[in-house]
């Protein structure tokens, strides 16, 4: 059970609301109904994704196509966060990111970069690209940002490596630690709660990743609900350090508990 009724909800997207089947997005059973119930309840929400392959606008379109009525301003992602950071600090970024979000960085001067930004570049994580990134980092003159640090994700029923392992390799070789712009960073969850006008202690996070979603949120002061969909594995229920506030069968069950908590 939850320790208290949440005043706001943070919710992951992939593995909670939808899965990818043969590269096609499919709503998880009863997730559309759950999302509608949340919206009708008037409890404020933000969708928190670590996906750095899409802009928030593109993510909203993908969700709308499969039945979720959501706008881009209800989504926070590592890409939206780092773009704001670059604007505020007038940085010149070197970026190794997915081609689908490369245009987000075209507005910035990228000559003589003063920061390094690495996201889920997928097939662009070549040896040449990793070496180029390493050479910019070694020596410690440039700040290093990563767009999330998840270990793996579920795609068409198959687990695939996420950006985290590439970040770990760059950190190890360059001896420069990356600042995380996505989950499990407490700063990311604090910013998401701020979008709701609430403190982390007043919100709950729903996710399928025991470390990045639930662990990260709880470290930030949120309650955490782990759902048994997406990348969830039975061993996650017995994690040595992360103890979810609640383990739910799916997002419908999670929303039902949230709405019924007094």
Architecture overview:
The longest helix is centred in the N-terminal third of the chain and has 12 residues, at 78-89. With 262 residues, this protein is α/β, with parallel strands linked by helices. It starts with 7 loop residues before the first strand and ends with a helix. The mean pLDDT is 96. The strands form four sheets. Strands 5-4-1-12-13-14 form a six-stranded parallel β-sheet. Strands 6-7-8-11 form a four-stranded parallel β-sheet, sandwiched between helices. It has eight helices and 14 strands. It has helices spanning 31-41, 56-65, 78-89, 127-137, 164-174, 186-195, 210-219, 251-260; strands at residues 8-11, 18-21, 24-27, 45-48, 75-76, 93-96, 115-118, 143-146, 152-155, 158-161, 179-180, 203-207, 223-227, 246-248.
